[in-house]
Amino acid sequence: MAQYTLEVTTGDLQYSGTWDHVYVTLIGDKGESARTELDNYGPDFSAGTRCNLSHAWEPRDTVLQTGQYVVQTPKSLGKLLLLKVEKEAYFLFPEDEWYCSKVVVKTPEGDSLLFPCYNWMSRQKTLELRGGNAVKVFEEDNPLLKEHRKNELERKKKLFEWRVTDDGVPHYSPLEVLELPSEIRFTSLKSSEISHTRMLTGFELKIKGLLESQSRWESIEDMKKIFWYKKTPLSEYVAEHWNDDEFFGYQFLNAVNPMVIKQCQKLPRNFRVTEDMVKPFLQEGSSLQKELEKGNIFIVDHKRMEGIATRVHNGQDLHVADGFCLFYLNPDKKLKPIAIQLYQQPSKRNPVFLPSDSETDWSLAKMFIKSADAMDHQIVHHLMNTHYMAEVYAISTLRNLPVIHPLYKLLIPHFRGTLHVNSGGRKALLGPGGPLTITSLGFEGLIELMKRSQAEKTYSSMCLPENIRARGLESIPNFYYRDDGLRLWDIINSFVKAVIEHFYTSADVQKDSELQDWIHEIFVHGFLSRESSGIPSRFHSVEELTRFVTMVVFNASVQHVAVNGGQFDYLTFIPNGSLLLHQPPPTSKGQSTLESVLETLPNIGETVKFAAMLRLLSEKYSDFVPLGKYPEERFNEPAVKKMMEEFQEKLSEFSEFVESRNKQLEVPYTYLNPINIENSTTI
């Protein structure tokens, strides 16, 4: 008799255990075992220990429940190919889905084979698991495994279809949340925590009489009191310093949208700022031309918004500032705004506002610039460039790479929860009554902005080192997003390079048909077959593959938290970056008052609708998996496991550096501390 020992691990997810009967069949190249029930004395498939059900996040160690079972066969099955798992009802017990994490099989020959599962099993579901090391398509030599691989991809392509649109935005999955496979959806614990946060937020705002209120704010001070308990040191700092010019400049480097400011070497012809206007704000004896030549002048240009039709509110078109803001890096290394023109086209009704104007004129000018920036941030740099592009990468991975493929094993942890959050988010944020539909641009305006951005998007702009160089921001001081982001890019790139070189030569890359299908679908459905984007439609070398995979991992993890993590901190105090402004931008100087500012801002109900959205998006939930942690064991190769350990060590060292640096800063930059970076775009 030959004996196979199976270690079967049940996940540590809520409700992941089962009372049902579980059966396995081992399939080898020399035969298969009898269908064998996994049944020891006592309960067999209990869930592992989980953290408490509080919505507060606490670090935890994964605790899994593992049972050991024996399958006997008359003789050795030879090389193990597949492990079939089935689940049947236990008496009249109701259905209880079982989350199987993995099965490790020890063979009579002394080998130990990992069969990753990470699937929920119902009574109607049969799983055939592949075990052992990662295998590329051209390495398959067994007819049974070739057929299994083919059938897996055919099944997944029927499930994960593309919703092809013609409106110039990335394609996406048409599946509703409840149509997604259980293992693709949020855990029940996370769903309950999100519901809990939403309920508590709504309850607090309702009993305060803020929800649905049409009243105007009576003072700026009142806007600091939206939430009783949900505050952060930085959100309170923002409320006190939002109108300071130095902090205004700082935010374009280190707040939620560090993606638009760039060095200005020559003023746009339609930006009618003059030497005399800005001379008082420059170093004594200097000039605008000299500072341009020194590289000390920077600009934010919202030209992409020019001509977009805005939302109609109470019969009137709302207004969006599509103009310019000019910044000066002074001798104290502080970045300050020195001139604002609110529209692209110069005219008498489009003056250049200056820090020397009245306080309310200057405040309104900055508010309109920040409002345009907030809409650009939310729809382009947050939703489209992280969420929607991560969905493209995820769908193409699910459709084109079988679970045994090395790139699937490497990438799938970085897409955890992405399809769920996007499917729900499209309705919650952009559906009827959603917070983003009441912005100044409205739904149609935001989609137009997304389309324009997508038409301009380039591969290099999505690769942080090239993005920073293209914007001339290599040496501007106090740019912590750049400093931390570039370091993380290098750490991720080093890890990705090691893993890819372990599995591929450039010749292997070229003949991996599944890999080529993967990038081709991304080119077609994510970048709409636009060759000018620079995105490859085919890989030719290890170097090309490494660069692209680095970009995918970086944007699904690091870049997402960079543009999402600080939303509560920076944007819940509405004057600092409102998605909606009711009054038009000032067209002359000296006419505004504090009352003008209050009339321009959203009313109470609109404000708290935005604040509730930002609170939900900025929460950290208890199933948070930080960058570099891989609780799902998908690789069987010791060398790759060692690479993961080294990746984690580098991230840990960098985390210590960030924490040490932040102790010296008045405004700590914490978002790109690896312990705060989620491994995937999942909220």
Write a structural description.
With 683 residues, the chain is of the alpha+beta class. Helix content is 39%, strand content 13%. It is built from 20 helices and 16 strands. The chain has helices at residues 143-159, 188-207, 233-241, 245-254, 275-278, 288-294, 359-400, 406-411, 418-430, 442-456, 464-470, 480-503, 506-511, 513-525, 542-556, 558-564, 567-571, 594-600, 604-618, 638-662, and strands at residues 2-10, 21-28, 31-32, 36-37, 65-73, 80-88, 98-106, 112-121, 127-130, 262-263, 297-301, 312-313, 316-317, 324-329, 335-341, 352-353. The strands form 4 sheets. Strands 2, 3, 4, 6 and 9 form a 5-stranded antiparallel β-sheet that branches. Strands 10-11-14-15-16 form a 5-stranded antiparallel β-sheet. A 4-stranded antiparallel β-sheet has the order 5-1-7-8, with no helix packed on it. A hairpin with a 2-residue loop joins β12 and β13. α2 (188-207) runs antiparallel to α19. The longest helix has 42 residues, at 359-400. It is elongated, with a radius of gyration of 28 Å. The protein starts with a strand and ends in a 21-residue tail after the last helix.
What attributes characterize this protein structure?
13% strand; 39% helix; five-stranded antiparallel beta sheet; alpha+beta
Low-confidence stretches: 49-62
Q: Using only CA atoms, what is the Rg?
A: 28 Å
The major β-sheet equals: 5 strands, antiparallel
Structural class, by secondary structure, is alpha+beta
Q: Give the helix proportion (percent range).
A: 25-40%
Mean pLDDT: 94
Number of helices: 20
How many runs of DSSP E, i.e. beta strands? 16
Calculate the terminal CA-CA distance, rounded to whole Å.
52 Å
Shape: elongated
Q: How big a fraction of the residues is strand?
A: 5-15%
- Oligomer, anyone? single chain
